[in-house]
Please model this.
Amino acid sequence: MKKKIETAETIKIIPETTEEAIQQLVMANRILANEGVLDTFGHVSVRNPENRKTFLQARSISPYEVTEEDILEIDFDGNVLTETAMLPYGERIIHGALLNARSEMNAVFHGHPAAVIPFSVTDIPIKPVMHLGSFIYQGVPVYDDYEPDDGMLIRKKSEGERIAKHLGEHRVQLLRGHGCNIVADHLPQLVASAIYLRDNATVQWQALLVGKEPKYISPEVARVAMQMALFGPMPTARSWGYWVARVKANMPDME
Amino acid sequence: MKKKIETAETIKIIPETTEEAIQQLVMANRILANEGVLDTFGHVSVRNPENRKTFLQARSISPYEVTEEDILEIDFDGNVLTETAMLPYGERIIHGALLNARSEMNAVFHGHPAAVIPFSVTDIPIKPVMHLGSFIYQGVPVYDDYEPDDGMLIRKKSEGERIAKHLGEHRVQLLRGHGCNIVADHLPQLVASAIYLRDNATVQWQALLVGKEPKYISPEVARVAMQMALFGPMPTARSWGYWVARVKANMPDME
Amino acid sequence: MKKKIETAETIKIIPETTEEAIQQLVMANRILANEGVLDTFGHVSVRNPENRKTFLQARSISPYEVTEEDILEIDFDGNVLTETAMLPYGERIIHGALLNARSEMNAVFHGHPAAVIPFSVTDIPIKPVMHLGSFIYQGVPVYDDYEPDDGMLIRKKSEGERIAKHLGEHRVQLLRGHGCNIVADHLPQLVASAIYLRDNATVQWQALLVGKEPKYISPEVARVAMQMALFGPMPTARSWGYWVARVKANMPDME
Amino acid sequence: MKKKIETAETIKIIPETTEEAIQQLVMANRILANEGVLDTFGHVSVRNPENRKTFLQARSISPYEVTEEDILEIDFDGNVLTETAMLPYGERIIHGALLNARSEMNAVFHGHPAAVIPFSVTDIPIKPVMHLGSFIYQGVPVYDDYEPDDGMLIRKKSEGERIAKHLGEHRVQLLRGHGCNIVADHLPQLVASAIYLRDNATVQWQALLVGKEPKYISPEVARVAMQMALFGPMPTARSWGYWVARVKANMPDME
Model:
């Protein structure tokens, strides 16, 4: 396991080419599988650095199995631009809608971590209860405006637009009885957001059961904590390096 | 771990021969062990495609250890048809009774996942609280009509018939203080049902503790969600492919 | 991982020689470590088949690391009979006292599984809530008569005798704020008891939180379930074979 | 996995040279990662045996990845004395402040185990509920005097001094909505403290939910239990040996 150690100086966080984005996207898939955030279902995407009106995403396959050959280029309406017979995810429309609406964001997560779903079916909102969960300081709205006939899946362009409107300027939204969507500046930040959203939800749930109202972190403090503790260059490089090292140790084909 | 990736087009979901059914059954056993749904106890079966009045099931051995040589052919009364000295599971009668009563179903699960047992000893029914748990939208009845002298095991033909009658047209029944039975169209659907029954129970339990009455998914919506999100061809192929890939990575003899 | 599969017919449950008992004891240690029941602390012992007034137990080392060279022969007063400089466990006195008092039992467990400790510091007794937990149907008393100056450790012969008297005819006792002791007919039964005591405690805790009074299993039914579902020859062989297979897969030196 | 077994006699607990301290520090990092106490974030340090006014600590990297080349020498004001371009942890100031204030202690932990955070945001103090958690018998105060603009991170010398004053003569302090600091005589004791603080918090949380006020361990008994059950030479050697064996089994580069 003698790893080449990468540092804040040497880890490339912002991909400049489609090729670099694909490599990072494969790693993001593997990390989310390896850390138990995604199982069969759920998916991530990244804006194409060479065409900001398209995004990159795996074909219909579990994140655990994704390789570079599985990555498709897709436009915001969900059309697969890659010439291939491979099938895309049904819910790719979420990714197109959010990248279209949030031009300052470049990466999207959709998944179903068990720890967050209880907050989507009760009246208790997720709030930051630990500094590493600070990035949700603007609130986590719960979407509940599903298309009647789509079985709680987001598959139509019109519903994608509703989802985007509901997210607004937030970073995270829950989908009632389903899961959550997250947007981020880049994939390493997206992975950190998915992992610490789950961890914050777990700790908040534990705190709610044992005490009365937990002492939440105020939006003012959380905004600073988000930048310093999680999203700054040093924590971003450190956490991405850590998750990459674990993938390399656990998944022989990624070594 | 460079895996040959199988897709919705190439994965065979419905076995056509006894041989194919045996191979799929071994894999189903290993998946349920690998995903932590079954430990020593519990078992799965599949209807024999070459004789719909018999089923295939491992001899008395943990699902973790099952190989092709361990599979027996058994009739609905529990008689072992394979010429062998190997011993069958005591509770094989469950499988015969349910396959007999439910001719449209081809696979049966019996197990004791910890997350579901609390719902068998309290007055709170399991209900779908997340879209991947939608397949239980018709309700999950709790059986509590044990034979007095059988130590809560289902071993007599007459009790097998009571079990089948109690299940009725449902897909899942709990056994009070014991575990659950599940029926499905085929083994990949059965495995998905067992895994997401557990996950739905976990999330429902978490939601019940933190909130008041959770917002359950209505039967109408759940019926559609079941087909689109979990039981349709694409999610079936994706999830089975994922669980197979994890077995191959974790169990060297299955590579 | 092509395992030689052992069956109810071929697995030897009752050791006849000291050598056989030592081999089984090493495996019991490894299983309890591998299944997460014991960490650094806690220990198991087995009565010496060649001298029923002594028992076999590892030197002061974690169960995870135990090998045949680490096994000591000890008398019921805690004297180490093996000629060695190796140090015994401080709490070996528990094992001597229980084997002395319970001549029909041949194996003793002492450990601190997290799931059982809450029941030792509250007024709620552990009771069978699932059929695999039936073996505690006679009740699980909580010991709270510690020697004032021994820091809650059981190290004096007089306290060993109090422990044995407190256990009486039960199979399991909790030690307040500390852990539990278990006695069994043989090591495979002891391992099964330790694992399913933990699992029953987990499920009981989950049931207590979500419902009102759970439906416990009556002593009459539990007595039968214990024999049929867990302690009979077939479940004993199946579960021991399963745990051995997992040790062999996870611990290269035990292959 | 044939391990060279180390015993209370052969395991060196107190390093005498900088080199020995570095080796032990690398192992402590790996243990805390391997046992799930630290993820990306959090860090440990040890006083330099060759210069008691400095300490040793990894550069800004996850504990999972730390090797001997990553260790820096740092003074109590946070100045990096090692000639290197490698970046230190932002919160190294905690370690300097606590080692400066507590001259009898030689090792410091800062981390964010999920099990303890609920106790930092509710009114319920962590107390010893199991004998292995006895070392917190003097109480666990909760720090809540953060610098307004530092995002809940401890980065200024003045705040380090407040942290040290708040800790006083305790061994553990929580940081509200953030995590905990622990001091110990040496690294093996520090690792044991971090692991059993987490385990005690878990059991206490479980006990609080299921019962009324748990029976806590009195300070008088706990003080003795701490020495006999966890911090004495035999349990120290046994537990460190165990955690080292697990690192060697799981991390090929540490074999």
Notes: The first helix of chain A runs from residue 18 to 34. The CA atoms of residues 12 and 40 of chain A lie 28 Å apart.
